[in-house]
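Appendix B, Record 12. Input sequence as logged:
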Amino acid sequence: MKKMGKKILIVGGAGGMGLFLAKFLQKDFEVSIYDINPEGRRISDEIGVNFSDEDEDE
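Logged structural output:
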C-alpha cells in the first residue's frame, strides 16, 4: 500500500502509548517519533519507525 505522503510525528512517543500508536499507524503513514528518551531509539528501530532526539531548528 502506498502511503501517499501522509506523515505523523509522535512527540514524547518513546513511552508505551506512543510506541503502540507508531506501530499501529505505520501501515498507513510515515511515522516518526521525537523524544529525549534514548531508549526510544532502540525500540523505534525494532518496530521500524524513524526516531529523533534532536531539535532540527538548532
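The first helix runs from residue 16 to 25.
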